[in-house]
Protein backbone atom coordinates (compact mmCIF):
# COMPACT_ATOMS: atom_id res chain seq x y z
CA UNK A 1 0.00 0.00 0.00
CA UNK A 2 1.08 3.58 -0.60
CA UNK A 3 1.28 5.15 2.83
CA UNK A 4 2.16 8.82 2.40
CA UNK A 5 1.69 11.43 -0.28
CA UNK A 6 5.02 13.01 0.62
CA UNK A 7 6.95 9.77 0.96
CA UNK A 8 5.19 6.98 -0.95
CA UNK A 9 6.18 3.38 -0.44
CA UNK A 10 5.27 0.38 -2.52
CA UNK A 11 4.87 -2.80 -0.51
CA UNK A 12 4.24 -6.25 -1.97
CA UNK A 13 2.27 -9.12 -0.47
CA UNK A 14 1.45 -12.29 -2.40
CA UNK A 15 -0.68 -15.30 -1.58
CA UNK A 16 -1.42 -18.59 -3.32
CA UNK A 17 -3.88 -18.33 -6.21
CA UNK A 18 -7.31 -19.91 -6.05
CA UNK A 19 -10.42 -20.08 -3.91
CA UNK A 20 -8.53 -21.87 -1.12
CA UNK A 21 -6.83 -18.54 -0.32
CA UNK A 22 -10.05 -16.52 -0.05
CA UNK A 23 -10.21 -17.02 3.72
CA UNK A 24 -10.19 -15.19 7.04
CA UNK A 25 -6.65 -16.43 7.55
CA UNK A 26 -5.34 -14.90 4.32
CA UNK A 27 -7.19 -11.64 5.00
CA UNK A 28 -5.66 -11.54 8.50
CA UNK A 29 -2.19 -12.18 7.05
CA UNK A 30 -2.62 -9.22 4.65
CA UNK A 31 -3.85 -7.01 7.52
CA UNK A 32 -1.01 -8.09 9.81
CA UNK A 33 1.49 -7.33 7.02
CA UNK A 34 -0.01 -3.87 6.61
CA UNK A 35 -0.01 -3.20 10.36
CA UNK A 36 3.58 -4.40 10.70
CA UNK A 37 4.55 -2.00 7.90
CA UNK A 38 2.59 0.82 9.57
CA UNK A 39 0.17 1.37 6.71
CA UNK A 40 -2.23 4.17 7.59
CA UNK A 41 -5.56 5.41 6.28
CA UNK A 42 -3.66 7.12 3.47
CA UNK A 43 -2.72 3.69 2.09
CA UNK A 44 -4.27 2.29 -1.07
CA UNK A 45 -4.43 -1.41 -1.82
CA UNK A 46 -3.81 -2.61 -5.36
CA UNK A 47 -5.51 -5.88 -6.25
CA UNK A 48 -3.38 -7.28 -9.09
CA UNK A 49 -4.89 -10.60 -10.10
CA UNK A 50 -8.08 -12.43 -10.85
CA UNK A 51 -11.38 -12.52 -9.03
CA UNK A 52 -10.08 -14.15 -5.86
CA UNK A 53 -7.44 -11.45 -5.44
CA UNK A 54 -9.94 -8.70 -6.17
CA UNK A 55 -12.50 -10.07 -3.72
CA UNK A 56 -10.04 -10.60 -0.87
CA UNK A 57 -8.06 -7.39 -1.35
CA UNK A 58 -11.25 -5.38 -1.86
CA UNK A 59 -12.72 -6.74 1.37
CA UNK A 60 -9.48 -6.05 3.21
CA UNK A 61 -9.57 -2.46 1.94
CA UNK A 62 -13.21 -2.14 3.05
CA UNK A 63 -12.36 -3.05 6.63
CA UNK A 64 -8.74 -1.91 7.18
CA UNK A 65 -8.88 1.13 9.46
CA UNK A 66 -12.62 1.33 8.65
CA UNK A 67 -11.99 1.60 4.93
CA UNK A 68 -9.19 2.62 2.59
CA UNK A 69 -9.17 2.93 -1.21
CA UNK A 70 -8.57 -0.03 -3.49
CA UNK A 71 -7.44 -0.13 -7.11
CA UNK A 72 -8.49 -3.19 -9.08
CA UNK A 73 -6.06 -4.43 -11.75
CA UNK A 74 -7.85 -7.52 -13.07
CA UNK A 75 -5.79 -10.11 -14.93
CA UNK A 76 -8.50 -12.57 -15.97
CA UNK A 77 -11.40 -12.19 -18.38
CA UNK A 78 -13.89 -12.92 -15.62
CA UNK A 79 -12.32 -10.32 -13.34
CA UNK A 80 -12.24 -7.66 -16.08
CA UNK A 81 -15.88 -8.18 -17.07
CA UNK A 82 -17.42 -9.06 -13.74
CA UNK A 83 -15.69 -9.15 -10.37
CA UNK A 84 -13.58 -5.97 -10.59
CA UNK A 85 -16.66 -3.87 -11.37
CA UNK A 86 -19.32 -3.18 -8.79
CA UNK A 87 -17.60 -3.34 -5.44
CA UNK A 88 -18.82 -6.74 -4.23
CA UNK A 89 -16.00 -8.05 -2.05
CA UNK A 90 -15.94 -11.11 0.19
CA UNK A 91 -14.19 -14.12 1.60
CA UNK A 92 -15.33 -17.72 1.85
CA UNK A 93 -16.21 -19.25 5.22
CA UNK A 94 -17.27 -22.76 6.27
CA UNK A 95 -20.95 -21.73 5.86
CA UNK A 96 -20.38 -20.91 2.18
CA UNK A 97 -18.76 -18.95 -0.62
CA UNK A 98 -18.73 -15.13 -0.37
CA UNK A 99 -20.75 -15.17 2.86
CA UNK A 100 -18.66 -12.53 4.68
CA UNK A 101 -17.95 -9.35 2.77
CA UNK A 102 -18.80 -5.75 2.00
CA UNK A 103 -19.77 -3.48 -0.84
CA UNK A 104 -16.64 -1.37 -1.40
CA UNK A 105 -16.28 0.40 -4.73
CA UNK A 106 -12.78 0.53 -6.22
CA UNK A 107 -11.24 3.96 -6.62
CA UNK A 108 -10.16 2.91 -10.11
CA UNK A 109 -10.17 -0.20 -12.28
CA UNK A 110 -7.25 -0.57 -14.66
CA UNK A 111 -7.97 -3.34 -17.15
CA UNK A 112 -5.46 -4.13 -19.88
CA UNK A 113 -6.77 -6.65 -22.44
CA UNK A 114 -3.17 -7.62 -23.25
CA UNK A 115 -3.07 -9.38 -19.86
CA UNK A 116 -5.50 -11.94 -21.27
CA UNK A 117 -2.77 -13.30 -23.56
CA UNK A 118 -1.29 -14.98 -20.47
CA UNK A 119 -4.45 -17.09 -19.98
CA UNK A 120 -5.39 -20.47 -21.36
CA UNK A 121 -8.10 -20.61 -24.04
CA UNK A 122 -10.47 -22.11 -21.47
CA UNK A 123 -9.91 -19.23 -19.01
CA UNK A 124 -10.57 -16.69 -21.76
CA UNK A 125 -13.79 -18.42 -22.84
CA UNK A 126 -15.06 -18.86 -19.26
CA UNK A 127 -14.77 -15.13 -18.67
CA UNK A 128 -16.33 -14.23 -21.99
CA UNK A 129 -19.42 -16.16 -20.91
CA UNK A 130 -20.15 -13.15 -18.69
CA UNK A 131 -20.15 -10.90 -21.76
CA UNK A 132 -22.50 -13.32 -23.56
CA UNK A 133 -24.79 -13.17 -20.52
CA UNK A 134 -24.69 -9.37 -20.63
CA UNK A 135 -25.62 -9.55 -24.29
CA UNK A 136 -28.59 -11.79 -23.51
CA UNK A 137 -29.76 -9.64 -20.58
CA UNK A 138 -28.98 -6.13 -21.83
CA UNK A 139 -27.64 -5.78 -25.36
CA UNK A 140 -28.76 -7.68 -28.45
CA UNK A 141 -26.05 -5.99 -30.56
CA UNK A 142 -23.33 -7.24 -28.20
CA UNK A 143 -24.77 -10.75 -28.33
CA UNK A 144 -24.93 -10.69 -32.13
CA UNK A 145 -21.39 -9.32 -32.39
CA UNK A 146 -20.11 -12.14 -30.20
CA UNK A 147 -22.11 -14.79 -32.04
CA UNK A 148 -20.86 -13.61 -35.44
CA UNK A 149 -17.21 -13.23 -34.36
CA UNK A 150 -16.79 -15.93 -31.71
CA UNK A 151 -13.55 -17.39 -33.10
CA UNK A 152 -11.87 -14.01 -33.53
CA UNK A 153 -12.93 -12.85 -30.08
CA UNK A 154 -11.71 -16.01 -28.35
CA UNK A 155 -8.47 -15.66 -30.32
CA UNK A 156 -8.21 -12.20 -28.68
CA UNK A 157 -8.63 -10.04 -31.79
CA UNK A 158 -7.66 -6.66 -30.29
CA UNK A 159 -10.42 -4.51 -31.80
CA UNK A 160 -13.25 -6.99 -31.24
CA UNK A 161 -12.05 -7.83 -27.73
CA UNK A 162 -11.88 -4.15 -26.83
CA UNK A 163 -15.45 -3.65 -28.08
CA UNK A 164 -16.78 -6.68 -26.19
CA UNK A 165 -15.02 -5.81 -22.93
CA UNK A 166 -16.02 -2.15 -23.10
CA UNK A 167 -19.68 -2.95 -23.81
CA UNK A 168 -19.97 -5.62 -21.12
CA UNK A 169 -18.26 -3.48 -18.47
CA UNK A 170 -20.29 -0.39 -19.40
CA UNK A 171 -23.54 -2.34 -19.00
CA UNK A 172 -22.46 -3.76 -15.65
CA UNK A 173 -21.37 -0.32 -14.41
CA UNK A 174 -24.71 1.14 -15.45
CA UNK A 175 -26.61 -1.57 -13.57
CA UNK A 176 -24.42 -1.16 -10.48
CA UNK A 177 -25.03 2.60 -10.54
CA UNK A 178 -28.78 1.92 -10.42
CA UNK A 179 -28.67 -0.93 -7.88
CA UNK A 180 -25.33 -0.96 -6.02
CA UNK A 181 -26.42 -3.21 -3.15
CA UNK A 182 -28.14 -5.85 -5.33
CA UNK A 183 -31.71 -5.26 -4.17
CA UNK A 184 -33.35 -5.65 -7.57
CA UNK A 185 -32.00 -5.17 -11.10
CA UNK A 186 -28.43 -6.14 -10.20
CA UNK A 187 -29.62 -9.59 -9.12
CA UNK A 188 -30.15 -10.39 -12.82
CA UNK A 189 -26.36 -10.41 -13.18
CA UNK A 190 -26.25 -13.50 -10.98
CA UNK A 191 -27.94 -15.48 -13.75
CA UNK A 192 -25.81 -18.58 -14.23
CA UNK A 193 -23.79 -18.17 -11.00
Order of strands across the biggest sheet?
1-2-5
Number of strands: 5
Which geometry do the CA atoms define? globular
Q: What structural class do you assign from the helix and strand content?
A: alpha/beta
Descriptors for this entry?
alpha/beta, 7 helices, 5 strands, 45% helix, 3-stranded parallel beta sheet, globular, 193 residues
Could you explain the architecture of this structure?
With 193 residues, the chain is α/β, with parallel strands linked by helices. The protein is 45% helix and 13% strand. The protein has 7 helices and 5 strands. It has helices at residues 24-36, 51-63, 77-83, 121-138, 140-148, 150-154, 158-178, and strands at 45-49, 70-74, 88-93, 96-103, 108-109. A 3-stranded parallel sheet has the order 1-2-5, covered by helices on one side. Strand 3 and strand 4 form a beta hairpin. The model has no long low-confidence stretch (mean pLDDT 92).
